[in-house]
Write a structure and sequence with these properties.
binds copper (II) ion, mainly beta, about 280 residues, globular, five-stranded antiparallel β-sheet
Length: about 280
Amino acid sequence: MNAGTKLAAYGVSVVAVFGASFAVGTTAEPVGLANAEAAEHSGAMDMGDGLPGLASTAGGFTFVPSTDALVAGRPTSYEFSIADEDGHAVTEFDVEHTKRMHLIVVRRDFVGFVHDHPVMAADGTWSTTLDLNDPGAYRVYADFVVDGDKHTVGTDLFVPGTFDPQPLPRPATTDDAGDGYEVELDGELVVGQESELEFTIRRDGEVLTDIPDYLGAKGHLVALRDGDLAYLHVHADEDRLAFEADFPTAGPYRLFLQFEHGGQVRTASFTANAQEA
Ligand SMILES: [Cu+2]
């Protein structure tokens, strides 16, 4: 049998099998429906939709970056789109935290955290300028809402050069955010329940009470799991610098708190361990 005949025979058998299952489906419809329902309940239909940010495709959306490498220390245009299940670039996004797209970029050892808001062209191409100073392997997250549902898909981004990996900083409840700002974290990270995390900002030792809204809340928190950089969805308290997060497993997480003060966005970062209840 030559290749052509083989392909033709394969085609015929596929049609035959497909035809047979179609016939079964039409004559025994309840069985098919029951199976589909069972699959849905067992979570089989959600395959690949584990923790946010680990997959480049999740919930029917795919992160399509224009490049997977950037040059260190040079502001460079970074473009991407979010493709739907048919491969078409999505152009309709809901506003969340005052923006339609939140782009988070961080090196896999948690160095060089970036939180950016790209601009979308009419064809669904998002673009921004990234200036990554340190070579290494980065994780990029696109965090967005479509039809009321929140999605986070991730992809890798490489910056060639000599990579000097940094150890995970020790757990701490205070961080120096620069310019005399110090941020204190209060709250326990408890596995499997909504953990409340509250932050206090001091400048030169004085507690600041005049923190303006940044992205529709007093602050913005990104929580990433150590080891795989799973991205946690965090809910901000509208009136206080407090958040609720659900930590899926015990162990260390890296938290990035952003707030605005003195006309500038500032970032404090913490390592914190989640404990079993
Ligand atoms: Cu954002």
